[in-house]
Amino acid sequence: MELSGHLLSILIFFPAIGALALLCLKGDDEYWIRRLTFVVSVAEFLLSLILLRVVAIGNPGYALTEYKPWISSPPINYHLGVDGISMFLVILTTFLTPICVLASWKGVHHRIKEFHVMLLLLEVGIIGVFLALDLFVFFLFWEVMLIPMAFLIGIWGHGRRIYAAVKFFIYTMAGSAFMLVGILWLYNLTGTFDLPAIQLTLQSAAFHLAPRTEMLLFLSFFVAFAIKVPLFPLHTWLPDAHVEAPTAGSIILAGVLLKMGTYGMIRFCLPLFPEASHR
Fold first, then answer.
1. How many Cβ atoms from other residues are within 10 Å of residue 107's Cβ?
2. Longest dimension (CA), the chain
3. Going by C-beta distance under 8 Å and a sequence separation of 6 or more, which residues neighbour residue 138?
């Protein structure tokens, strides 16, 4: 693994800086709000293209990482990494965000500043999910992503927007509760939240995970990811969210958010619980 300096952190938090800049503008200054958001989102896309030069597709492990100790007890670290799986999803996210800004240029007429702030914060959460290698940090970004998406649906959506936003929030939070149980269970077994360290521990010959325990751990993650995909019968939130969401919300929902569930299965379920995944 090669340390990336601060490239991955910049990719995560650059939209947040743009959101802070938007807060300094007047709420009725539509001209600069829309243009500043578009410039920030395009700059973020161009920054993400650097990953194409540094990530070798097909190579095992993570091409770039960032690691900083954060909390000593329990041991939570700011650990980021990118490989061929997460790279394309990061680029997809940064590519779709400027399109969302353009798609809402004439379609959003109230609370314009708040709308664009939520859009940029949503990008922060999504990219954080794809780059986080510490389970606690991953869970944190997973929840950060949920809040602005619920606001986008509930405030700027259509007729039944409140119902759709609450349903989306409840379904996702229910899945997150299962995943949090699995994360804490894995920490109790391995003594760490670090994904590569957990994977090495579970795959070592000295560590044996009982089939029943492995299946329960697998299900705790799988339910959260199945809701996000969504898989039957956990899918009923999706038609309401798609119908009621604004255009930008539907683009992000279909383009990125639904891929996050499958990404979670590939990143966590398959390598950590291979036998349960096979069953």
1. 11
2. 63
3. 129, 132, 195
How many CB atoms lie under 10 A from the CB of residue 54? 13
* Closest by CA position to 86, among listed 203, 269, 259: 259
Token pair 């579970």 is found at 202
Q: What are the CA-CA distances from residue 4 to residues 69, 143, 146, 162 (Å)?
A: 16, 25, 28, 42
Q: What is the pLDDT of residues 229-267, one digit of tens each?
A: 888 888 888 888 878 888 888 888 888 988 999 999 999
Q: What's the pTM value of the predicted model, to 2 decimals?
A: 0.90
Strand, coil or helix: what is 70?
strand
What single-letter DSSP state applies at residue 255?
I
At 71-92, the pLDDT tens digits run 888 889 999 999 888 999 999 9
H/E stretch holding 68 reads strand 64-71
The two beta strands, 76-82 and 64-71, are antiparallel
Gap between the Cα atoms of 267 and 98, Å rounded: 27
Run of H or E residues at 76: strand 76-82
d(CA 16, CA 12): 8
From edge to edge, which strands make up the β-sheet containing 2-3? Answer: 2-3, 64-71, 76-82
Burial class, 125, CB count within 10 angstroms (exposed 0-12 / middle 13-18 / buried 19+): buried
